[in-house]
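Help wanted!
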Amino acid sequence: MKLGEGVEAAIHCAATLAGVDGDSTMPGAALAEAFGLSPSYLLKHLNMLTAARILESVPGPAGGYRLAKPAERITLLDIVLAVEGREPAFRCGEIRQRGPTKLDASAYVRPCGINAAMLKAERAYRAALAEVRLSDIVADFMKGADPRSVAASCAFAERHQRQQKSRST
Amino acid sequence: MKLGEGVEAAIHCAATLAGVDGDSTMPGAALAEAFGLSPSYLLKHLNMLTAARILESVPGPAGGYRLAKPAERITLLDIVLAVEGREPAFRCGEIRQRGPTKLDASAYVRPCGINAAMLKAERAYRAALAEVRLSDIVADFMKGADPRSVAASCAFAERHQRQQKSRST
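Answered by r_m:
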């Protein structure tokens, strides 16, 4: 089982944006710089988060990204699904219906038990991700990370955030 | 999040081998035929299951595969890890340590909270997979699948299994 590398970047960016003041935004280039990522690589993931309404993009030279809703209402599951897609990890190709023992469709009305068991485990995974809010991640960082890291992150946000005149939504 | 297509094939093959009599084996070509798969494609996955000691391979023209232990002692987690590898799905690249806010290593002794939360969810996934034994999958099929499917699968196993003189282990 594999998650794309973009998941780590997406969660870190969302957590960083949870730290900007009020309606302020942060440019994609600053987010890329914060994590040593290529801006063009990161843009793809920021776009996915924006399409999923986790982030909001403010256009223009003074624009950038901000959370589209409070960090308390964004979960790790929201971010993972935005970046990885909503399809189940287990892909059932219905191979039970192939080969010489294949019967007519009426024999396969009941879902394959293997698929059902795999999807049940995936529901447990998603439920665990849905339990963690972005605000929990930020609170854990503020409370538990090295104070130098917290200070450096706050200073970075302070330096790169751009105040906006009014919220677009 | 994605699982390779081989997972479906691996679980179906293991479930099929749970249905052969005693120490009998089934050739890889028959398993491939059963699910309409290319034998060379399937061989890779059968080898992985053998390397993980889920299957046992009996060499020679009259050989084939059989379970290396009772189906009660094989879980879906065993099979998924054998095919997909044991690495976590979430790959933490420690991007928190990149960029201009990077500090010396002593600031990152505590694991990243994002990585910790992602791994916790993955433990829930693996625990759910570990709860399902191959014998449960087989019992569910025998009890719940269409009787024509059950009869066809049993007849296929009967036709393709090869009795062995003695168990190698």
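OP: Thanks! One thing I noticed: The helical segments of chain B are 6-17, 28-34, 39-51, 76-84, 113-130, 134-144, 147-160.
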